[in-house]
Amino acid sequence: MVKIAPFEVELWLNKYIPLSKHFVSSSCPLPITLNELRSLSDKPVSPDHDPIPESLFSAALHYGTPGGLPKLRETIATLYSIKTPTPLPAKNVLITPGATPANFEILHALCGKGDHIIVHYPTYQQLYSIPEALGAEVSLWRSKEEDKWAVDVEELKGMIKPNTKAIIINNPQNPTGAILTRSTLESIIEIARENGITVFSDEVYRPLFHSISPADPEFPPSVLSLGYDNVVVSGSMSKAYSLPGIRVGWIASRSDEIIHRCVNWHSYTAISVSQLDESAAAFALDSSVLHNLIKRNNDLARRNLSILESFIEKYRWACEWAKPVASTVAFVKFSKMGKSVDDVAFCELLLAAKGVMFAPGSKCFGNGVDFKGYVRVGYVIETEKLEEVLRLVGEYLEEGFESVPVAKK
Ligand SMILES: Cc1ncc(COP(=O)(O)O)c(C=O)c1O
């Protein structure tokens, strides 16, 4: 049996979503319906231009095309080719059933016993627990809470070993909503290039950049466009594109060798992706829909973020944060008289009292040790629902916060 650590955030969600009235810790923006997706199209919907086109009703539902639906691979390749001198070929995009298998395949293609892997932290646990399960030595490269979750590039230089095989980053970052800026990414690439190291970036929250303008010189590009080929990224329809119910994600790399290794793992894990899912994804990413879809999600994120910000200002005596710049999540710290609360107890008590469900930071993102007092809030839900939830949390802070224990050292 291969031993792997419990996937804490997913286990927490599985356990408590059925018991909650208000689930406010999803990392997906408000999921969209196919009808709403249709309504976002600038081009009239027709039998050919539809999430599920008419031709699919009479098509044999065989396995999908190896590597993925050609139109979808081309569209995704184009998205990575903007502002780059050399376009990414469609053959260098591999469609997967979500980013979870994409990450699984990439990690299996990159990591093994005897390898040293550096992972940006905190992050989605998959990114460090799979390398550990594969026998790699994992070093966590910590974002600094006190510096709005920025990382220290000098520290990264000091972490490199002769057997360092990969640097894994998650940009924008789950659970903080922080970003690695352009200059930080350029430094990471420089360090990787000097040492012949692969860079793997989980970019599932691209392009949900609600609080930084693309005109900002520090706006983060995809690492695929920084002129280093030994790079691989994963992406997904679940997050920025609000379609977690169609299981479509992808792997993209300029390195044919990395893609070939991933294709081999893909054959063992997925074979192909549902034709129906791929077709809906191709519709959502079509230029007639894409911009309106991103606008829908960024507008909702901005509107809700300002509501969450007012809440945090009002309850400054109990909570604080580094305001997120991107994605759908915020990492909010709760404390009493300067002492972090026991975030697991807080989440459980709040759920029991008000039906509101958050994810505790120390359990879901901190190996039970780091990020005590933090909770992940998924705020890109219906605005009225967020307002109602924050009213309930406010009530709880006024009435029940007294009984929440502080964290043990
Ligand atoms: C950073 C990160 N990567 C990957 C995933 C998995 O995404 P998908 O729904 O595409 O499998 C998640 C889900 O929360 C995530 O936060």
UniProtKB/TrEMBL annotation:
SUPFAM superfamilies: PLP-dependent transferases (SSF53383). InterPro entries: Aminotransferase_I/II_large (IPR004839), NHTrfase_class1_PyrdxlP-BS (IPR004838), PyrdxlP-dep_Trfase (IPR015424), PyrdxlP-dep_Trfase_major (IPR015421), PyrdxlP-dep_Trfase_small (IPR015422). Residues 56-391 form the Aminotransferase class I/classII large domain. GO terms for molecular function: catalytic activity; pyridoxal phosphate binding. Keywords: Pyridoxal phosphate. Signal peptide: none annotated. Belongs to the class-I pyridoxal-phosphate-dependent aminotransferase family. PANTHER family: AMINOTRANSFERASE FUNCTION, HYPOTHETICAL (EUROFUNG) (PTHR43510:SF1). This is Aminotransferase class I/classII large domain-containing protein. It comes from Polytolypa hystricis (strain UAMH7299). The lineage of its organism: Eukaryota, Fungi, Dikarya, Ascomycota, Pezizomycotina.
